[in-house]
Amino acid sequence: MPQNSNSTSGQGPLAGIRVLEIGQLIAGPFTGCFLGYFGAEVIKVEAPGDGDPIRKWRMLGDDGTSLWWRSLGRNKKCITVNLRTDEGRDIVRKLAAESDVLIENFRPGTMERWGLGPEDLQTDNPGLIYSRISGYGQTGPYSEKTGFASVCEGIGGFRHLNGFPDRAPVRPNLSMGDTLAALHAALGILMAVVKKQNDPEHRGQVIDVAIYEAVFNLMESMVPEYDYGKEIRQCSGSTLTGIVPTNTYSCADGKYVIIGGNGDSIYKRLMHAVGRDDLGEDPRMANNAGRVDNEPEIDSAIAEWTSKRDSDEVLDIMAEAEVPSGPIYDVADMMADEHFQARGLFEKVEVNGQELTIPAIPPFLSDTPGATRWPGPEVGSHNQEILSDVLGFDAETLKRFESEGII
Known about the structure:
By secondary structure, the protein is an alpha/beta fold.
């Protein structure tokens, strides 16, 4: 059974890997959050003053800091460095020389203008794995365009497929593209770590992650289908084009359930469960191709049946028939659900003397699980530890840096 805790006893599978996070908001910071959860030492570089803008996004705690930050900034050692000063950039160069991985998510060219690009930093540290996240990638005609998750979800193909044919394309109420890009970056970093370990010269490499390409990676069979048959998949509401039946159905209590009966034997069990043996045994609908041809009739029969029953009854009957089905949860439903609890999907941290629940980060590793060791800390809270203990700056130098706005 997966279990998570805030214990510092487990180091995690990435213990011993130092990550330098230079970025802000979501894509780069979630990459660092993911690696830190599984044991990497993550040093987050923020601008002096307010730090990462995410600290002020969405709901704020009593101390004026975003609750999101307490989750996204977990396990990070936060330092402040003014990258617009020569000495600030020199601090980052020194840290990069002592790091295994660097994560940045600025617009392409920004790090190079600061003298902090891959070629600059890998000269002193050939083993540095340099992960870059941007809207459109480091090369190509769009590389310098501003690329937030919202626009990248559009050009990457997701928005075209999401919604109903008679309405404008719909976005999920999340920055999905950023999180997808972060997961691609983390995967790329881990592959680069393995390659480096197997390389006699222990060389690092550059990882180029584009948000729109992370979205594009979800597009399943669209490319070969268009190339071969010139078919352009369209949005289809709550159904899945070419797969029947799988849909969202309304129930008598005003709730919705999802039912996926698109396997041949599952379909038969589903139709028997809803009292439509005629459709379950109809040879025209014995396989998916036939069901696609008769989708309106099948969906209408299921919808009529669910509309006369409360959602709990519908799900109980589906479970008895071994038909994949489930409710549509909001966050309150998730936190009250015994399965979410049993799987260890929530963790407790302490912020300013108060308990706060934040999400755990799957996957669950049996021998070296991840964990939240501390919530997102205050701006610059690790300046002394990192700049003194890691880089060796003395107290007088740190005092001067602070007075001159370098940290």
